[in-house]
Structure to design on (333 residues):
């Protein structure tokens, strides 16, 4: 199989993989991959994980180069935590609808309108928004961090209103929300999910908290991508309905090939519409190019970086101890 590298250049896939391997060693690079990446990228990453896992890896690595196979805000977090490293992202257009839904100038006004509120900001946002926040959270530590904040402290959450509403319902705590959302998780259809549940009554439903309440209400488990993976591996059931981006199914199938995993459907009954279009921009050939040229590089100006680092460090201090979630690596070492 040959892979197009440019309009006039192709390379056999085996050669491309060998080149990536050679460049990884030559440049002392670590490849970090999110669970929503293409299976072939997950399989060659040094480490696959959720946003929190990947932030911790980026903070701890002794590699000179971090190749971040995920979306831009994740790579930006790596640069904020490890400014001395070169951080590259295969495609700089790999954004996030949650980040887009929260422009920094508007967010600043929102904060100013609630001067008494402590601001817990979801990691899916720009460095500028992080710089205006008190504590960053991810879907795997938000509840744990919220529990450490005194009950009489007013709290606001941005930018994901569904994560905010889920936490508010679960903890009984009133909060002010920024009205942002993820276009991918909003596409699941409640009607189709009910039909699928009726067809598979023995299959527990697991969902990401970025889903709207009408989907989460049908879930047996709600959690981050790592937590979803752990749930399906630990649970004795043989079949699961999974309401998050379908990239995660790859790790499930690899770790538990005897189980059946069914992606929750979108409105047309087909779950392909739930693929994250931003994550899909990263490809094997772009990964090769960015390792080869060390471009495009993530840059964060030093003043913003320092301001964004404080709420990120707060998150790392307030997070639970790292839970070992299999698999630790995409590669077979
Ligand atoms: P996780 O932190 O659960 O990996 O979620 C990141 C994300 O962008 C989900 O859409
Ligand atoms: Fe952003 Fe949604 Fe894609 Fe996650 S799935 S990166 S929240 S657009």
């Amino acid at each position: 199989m040959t892979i197009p590298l440019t309009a006039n250049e192709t390379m056999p896939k085996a050669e491309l993989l060998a080149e990536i391997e050679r460049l990884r060693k030559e440049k002392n690079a670590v490849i970090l991959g999110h669970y929503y990446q293409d299976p072939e990228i997950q399989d060659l990453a040094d480490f696959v994980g959720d946003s929190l896992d990947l932030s911790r890896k980026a903070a701890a690595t002794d590699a000179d180069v971090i190749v971040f196979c995920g979306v831009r805000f994740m790579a930006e977090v790596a640069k904020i935590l490890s400014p001395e490293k070169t951080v590259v992202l295969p495609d700089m257009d790999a954004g996030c609808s949650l980040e887009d839904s929260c422009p920094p100038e508007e967010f600043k006004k929102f904060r100013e309108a609630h001067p008494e509120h402590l601001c817990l900001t979801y990691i899916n946002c720009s460095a500028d928004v992080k710089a205006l926040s008190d504590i960053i959270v991810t879907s795997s530590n938000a509840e744990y961090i919220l529990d450490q904040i005194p009950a009489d402290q007013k709290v606001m959450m941005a930018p994901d209103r569904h994560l905010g509403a889920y936490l508010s319902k679960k903890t009984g705590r009133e909060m002010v929300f920024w009205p942002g959302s993820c276009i991918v998780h909003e596409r699941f259809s409640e009607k189709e999910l009910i039909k699928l549940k009726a067809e598979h009554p023995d299959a527990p439903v697991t969902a990401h908290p970025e889903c709207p309440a009408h989907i989460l209400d049908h879930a047996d488990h709600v959690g981050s991508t790592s937590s979803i993976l752990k749930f399906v591996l630990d649970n004795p059931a043989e079949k699961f309905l999974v309401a998050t981006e379908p990239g995660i199914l790859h790790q499930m199938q690899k770790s538990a090939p005897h189980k059946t995993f069914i992606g929750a459907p979108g409105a047309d009954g087909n779950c392909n519409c739930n693929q994250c279009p931003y994550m899909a921009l990263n490809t094997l050939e772009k990964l090769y190019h960015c390792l080869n040229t060390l471009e495009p590089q993530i840059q964060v100006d030093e003043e913003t970086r320092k301001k964004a680092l404080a709420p990120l460090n707060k998150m790392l201090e307030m997070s639970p101890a790292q839970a070992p979630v299999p698999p630790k690596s995409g590669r077979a070492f």
